[in-house]
Amino acid sequence: MSTRQDEVTAAPPRESHARQFGAGFVVKLLLMMAVNAFGIAAILSAWNAGAWAVLGGLVAFLLLADVIYFSRRMLPLKYLYPGLVFLLVFQVFAMAYTAYIATTNYGAGHNGSKEQAVEAALIQAETEVEGSPTYPLTVVRDGDTLGFAVNDDGTVRVGTEDQPLEDAPDATVGDNGAPSEVPGWEVVPRGDLLSDQALAQDVIDLRVPISDEADDGSLRTREGATAKIYRSSLDWDPEADTLTNTDTDVVYSPNDRGTFVGDDGSTLPTGWYVGVGLDNFSRAVTDAEIRAPLFKVTAWTFAFALLTVVTSFLLGLLFALIFNDDRIKGKKTLRTLFILPYAFPAFMSALLWRGMLNPEFGIINKFFFFGADISWLQDPWLARFAVLFVNLWLSYPYWFLVCTGALQSLSSETTEAARIDGASGWRLFRSITFPLLLVSTAPLAIASFAFNFNNFTIIYMLTGGGPNFDDTTLPLGATDILISAIYEISGVAGGRADFGLASALAVFVFVVVGVISALAFRQTRKLEEF
Amino acid sequence: MRNTIGKVAVVATSVALLAACSSGTTEETPSSAAPAASESEAAIDATGLTLTVWVDENRKPAVEAAAEQFETDTGATVELVQKNFEDIRTDFLAQVPTGKGPDITIGANDWLGELVEAGVVNTVDLGDKAGSFEQVALDALTLDGQLYGVPFFSEAIALIANMDLVADEAPATWDDMIAMGEESGANRPVVFTTSMGDGDAYHLYPVQTSFGAPVFAQDDTGAFIPEVAMGGENGEAFATWLSEQAEAGNVSANLDNETAYELFASGKSPYIITGPWAMTIGGFDGLDMQVYPVPGAGDEQAAPFVGVQGFYVSSQSENTLLANEFLTNYMATQEAQQTLYDLDPRIPVFEGVGSDDKPWLQGFVDAAAQGVLLPSIPEMGEVWSRWNAAESKIINGADPVKTWNAFVTDLEKAIS
């Protein structure tokens, strides 16, 4: 890498096209203008949204872009930079974020921040005092102090957060029953209330005690026109970081799992997410409830990916060999027909197959098995077979295409030389054609393995992972591969969400696919030496 | 010159991008909506504020109509975001804590436990409007004595009979129904979805309850507690019954909703077990139908699940006041509820809502009257996929008692 850079910089100074005031420069300038315009717009959006990490990243990307493209040097980076940016944004960031979630307990019941959990606990604990009348209400203010003025059966009473309700004898009541004028207070019209978001939020949060006795409750409004008496059974103490139940005197304090635990052992329903270190990873291997089904799923994932690649490669190769023969007429038409399954969207084909495999209404049983009642997708082994078969049907055209291309590019000289040496038929294929074919198709086979390792579509659309295992607590099934198991565990489709565990498994899948690809690519290099 | 062009480009794209970015959030956006017409003291001028509401396709036009009035009265903008109903729960749970969620969303009552556990919903107070709602609908959206939503319909499954094939007589038991269905000469005595092999415990639940095996135990107040009640003798009796019915061909593992609708609509089955939604989407137009409660097969009354849908207010909304104003004064009205009903008729929950031209509705009302509310405790999330799978296996010939007990044990482990 560095030597190449040296060559570039050491080359005799020749003005680049982009640095002369020609057409190239104008094009470059226009492009950079667009990049800067979008970059700055995105930075402003990030600023408005208060997303500081994103903002920092955007500024760095934009500055680097300007430096790279307006500098005389850094020629290689001029080519690499866009790719690097995409790699960082779409790959590295997503992976890093998944890894981060894997170290938290983000999931059902641990969904937001701690402040939100406290807020939720207070919302849940605040109940209407039984038999509370509905008071017509006017919001009043004195400078920055907000207050409620209510019409209590003809008497107007006023109070603030710190000042319990007291009579305001000289106040007048308007047509709608709510106080219209309160001496010493400025009346806030309801229109102002709704148009001022901040003020409206203050009014929503305002609680005016109805007496000196805190237990009597306080006035609260939800829409700014009426008030009712509410009482909260929880008291938040930000200093001590505890919530206290004023009815039972139970003190709830936060634990390191993101839950408020009372001193009597009870917990509050709403938690928040916290870092749990490598807990999710160790749970996946030590908790027998998770380990046992995951082991089966992992084994099937490998079998599924491997068998799919092998079967579809062999079938595709077979057809490619047959249809590469010069004696066959109408090769082009036939080849086009063969590619058809590949041309349909996979999810639609999978759905179609699901219908065709229906034991009662599907055509497979009706046409090919004399109407026998074969539950293709309900028996574990039949379902696995069906998944493999449908995936074979979906993917052999790809290999047919690839192998046809590879066969046609083989030089006829090698084959002829082999023929002169006396090789023919099977021997020719085994010793010459096939090894040469592997040189160009092996990397594709690895890519295909990695793709099928994460082939969510076919599993989800054809069997949904079922039929479920009999002996496991996790609702996973015989045809679940890792990626569909992760989907199930994540709770996106229903059920209890556990994004932490799902992310930990996703990291595991990433490592497996990465290692296998690396090893396999190293092996294919040996093929090229052939 | 170059500088000027650059600046213009920056400004132009900034504006476009910012507009695009802010439209999905509840930030203040400039609005050209006219201020309220009346200049009286009570006139509300919320110009510039945007209320974001998540709705599904069927609810959108009705909410749109109510929102129009609201916009004229207040000057605020109501932004309706149409989503798939199935996506709303997950998206709401994920987006509210980040501050990106809507102010209001529609939702089902069985989400409530999870929404409360996640701290994403606020309580609501219907004030004197509460009296106009069916109590059961309010109960459905209530948890620990707190009301969290404004309901707009309830629903329960029932047995729909084709009058051309069977007599107008509610079958007293499951066996009666099968006998009457077989007598009709149709291919199948009854059809209902089993999600094409995945199992569908929801549609079999009335029969299950008739064996005295409800999903969860209930406390003194009738609220569900996370204690599985499907096990034991009663559950085993239901599992055995299911296995026998599958053996006899009365329960098929291979039906989904569409196939079941099709078989019923074409007269290949005189009975179908389904909900009021099928009346709109099932293609039953022109059939002479009667609706009865689903008959039980055990000794107790068959009780279907009653589901309720309503509006929830986000706990992170910056427009709580406006959201409450919209819900209590614009959606909790007979007019708005009637529009909701007209567009997608389910069991109305508001006083005076309904119509005379849908005689079948009463059957669903009767069915719902013997039903139990869908449990809203968060543990319910663990139940469905295991439950469906267990029933599917039994229908496909697995040993009923063994499969059922394994399912109950697994479920108990999962929620403990």
Automatic annotation (TrEMBL), chain A:
InterPro entries listed in its UniProt record: MalF_N, MetI-like, MetI-like_sf, TM_PBP2_N
Domain ABC transmembrane type-1: 298-520
Pfam families, sorted: BPD_transp_1, TM_PBP2_N
Topology term for the membrane: Multi-pass membrane protein
Cell location: Cell membrane
UniProt KW keywords: Cell membrane, Membrane, Sugar transport, Transmembrane, Transmembrane helix, Transport
Region (Disordered) location: 159-180
TM ranges: 21-44, 50-70, 79-100, 299-322, 334-353, 385-407, 428-451, 499-521
Family label: Belongs to the binding-protein-dependent transport system permease family. MalFG subfamily.
Biological role: Part of the ABC transporter complex MalEFGK involved in maltose/maltodextrin import. Probably responsible for the translocation of the substrate across the membrane.
Listed PANTHER family: MALTOSE/MALTODEXTRIN TRANSPORT SYSTEM PERMEASE PROTEIN MALF, MALTOSE_MALTODEXTRIN TRANSPORT SYSTEM PERMEASE PROTEIN MALF
Name of this protein: Maltose/maltodextrin transport system permease protein
Species, as recorded: Demequina litoralis
UniProtKB/TrEMBL annotation, chain B:
Pfam families hit by this protein: SBP_bac_8
Signal peptide, first to last residue: 1-19
Keyword Transit peptide on entry: no
DNA damage among keywords: no
Key words of the record: Signal, Sugar transport, Transport
Organism domain of life: Bacteria
Family: Belongs to the bacterial solute-binding protein 1 family.
Name of protein: Extracellular solute-binding protein
Species of provenance: Demequina litoralis
